[in-house]
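Build the 3D complex.
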Amino acid sequence: MKSKWFLVLTVGLAFILGLTMAMVGCKTTTAETTAAETTAAATTAAAETTAAETTAAAETTAAGGEIKIAWAQWAPSDYLQKLSEGFTKETGVTVIVEQVPWETFVQKYNAEMIAQNDTWDIIIGDSQDVGAMATGGHYVDLTQWIKDNGVLDSFTPASMTYYAEYPKGGGKYWAVPVEGDALGWAYRKDLFEDPANMEAFKAKYGYDLGVPKDWNALKDIAEFFNDPAKDFYGVAIYGDNGYDSMVMFVEQLIWAFGGDIGDYSTYQIDGILNSQASVDGLEYYNKLFKFCPPAFNDAFYVKTNDAYVAGKVPMSANYFAFFPGLANEATNPYAKDTGYFVCPPQKGRDGQTRQFSALGGQGASVVSYSKKQDLAFKWLEWFIKPETQMEWAKLGGYTCHAATLASQEFLDATPYNPAFAKTMEIFKDFWAVPEYSELLTTMSTTLGPYVISNKGTAKEALDACTKEWTRIFTDAGYLK
Amino acid sequence: MFRRRNEISSTSIQYRALSDQALIRAFVLPTIVLLVFVNIFPLFWSLVLSFTNFTAKFPLVWGKNPKFMGIGQYIRILSDPAIWVKFITTAKYVLMSVGGEMLLGFGLALLLQIKFKGREIITTLLVLPMTMSPVIVGLMWKLFYDPNWGMFNYLLGFGKIDWATDIKYNLYASVIADVWMWTPFVFLLALAGLSAIPQYLYEAAEVDRASWWFKFTRITIPMVWPLLLVALIFRTMEAFKVFDVTMGISGRGATAPQLLSIYLYDTAFVNWKTGIGSALGYIVLIMIIAITSIFIKYLNKAKQ
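Done.
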């Protein structure tokens, strides 16, 4: 009798164990399938999933349905939620834009994708992450859809390259550009145009105070206004390196001074990232950073905007997406006196002048594990319409739609839109390879101590980063 | 008991059929299954992964991801000079924070042995930091350290030092917060140890006209030593893997102290290098076990 009870108990537990194992097994099998076939298989798998879910999805659509979009926690997500009300009116499909705090955004959606969850139907993810997500089979291949819907013709070529394409130049697309962001500048016109300031500046530097004509002039202006004794400082720029803020600022300076962060086609790093031109760019960052207010080592978009609206600096750099706060009189007492300019050009030691802005922004990708891919595609089709793009721009979103960007209506919509439109011609992105997060972490930790704490030299920092990046690319099999 | 069981209905007769041994197994088995799934299996699975190059972010392709690397991952970690910087920084952190906690905790316990009015309230207040969440402690100290308006620089007259994110000071910033939070733990254990010392030992020493120092080194320290060792073991283990306090104060990246725990987090959960992260985790585990074993050896000696 007792053995019978024990048997029943054991069999029961074995059943539970077996069930759990089977579930784990199912997950692994899916993962293996996706993995073995890598990027191409992801498309097929996604297509199969779509087919399998068609009936259910059709029912969902008939009933209105709901899709969930993951994006970072910031104003553009609110604008997108507002914009999507139009889609709901048109189709009856409810759109929920779920906002994840910036600090954990990338990690959160990476974790969800690794677990192959269908929490979200669309992810508006960072441009650098496209490679990893595509290779991992987490995003649906949109190449055919993009061609069928004429997205390549209607959106700016640069935005398609940096937000959607992987590998770069490979002709495969994984996203639709949503927020075409890049770094730009806000400045206090009242201070720049003050006669006393103008006179003193000209006396000191020999040229007129105004929107900086190059990065050297920007540093002169920062130095001119920097007066810690009066608790006023020269400039507000990023210092934080927990994610990509410092790296984005570093790369645009390296490019402007004639250096580069590697050869995107050959993966060669040595001799490029640690070239003298790159050293010039990094040294410049270190020098400019000295004119920041105290406690700027962890400054990201909030601190730079805060310093500006608190009247502590005459100019600040930030992503354009954060400029609405500066243009709003309710949040910025200097809103009326605020002007905007693009990242200035710079003549490198080779005599050539270059102008770059680091790319921010994100593209919308359909999640491979979504059970509502048909609704997700429907939303994308609605989103790329010219009238939706104009509405998106009017709400405050940064469209990459070429016709909208070129329209006078867009240029007149906000005081910073002209600078934004110009920036869209000069932006460039970080490595978008699957190993990008490792590259980012390494660059932050190797260059950060020099930029923010004067530890070592620019050459030493870049050499250390070059060594690590070469190892990462060798491990990944790109370099022999 | 037997008589009562015999009295009740036929349903309980069926229960009687389940022997004591079977009943024990029935009760223990679910716990064992849970432990196997939640603790043992992940432990062994991570051990297996530590010998591979597995990256969770990339698709599972047997032979490629994961690919068996043998002890290659361990050799790579231990031969990387950058890792040794993190080992040294972590060792500094452990020495400074645990050292500070032991000195202050034991010192406070000695002081609070003196009977005075309000002693109980002070004891309760001293314990409060330990009851807080480490993340909250980290964020709170981040505010204290703010060079513009934080209390730390203002009260101590340090000017505009950026304790939280300046690489020259960020390690000390975390140590100070850790000492603030965990000194009460040492203090409580030391106080318990001191209270348990029989009074007659001091009285006998008094009769022999022993000096304060003699009583302290020959009675107080030996009697309280086992409990101090327990505190030392716990605090060393905790300090070695400190994460939340430091993350709250300095975040990640170059502005944070280069501690092993933060590097491990970056490797495993930011870069998704699961294989190398597991290997690093095991190296840390072995180190903690080795250090703890030494302390436990001393603890056993002290008990004898």
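The first helix of chain A runs from residue 2 to 62.
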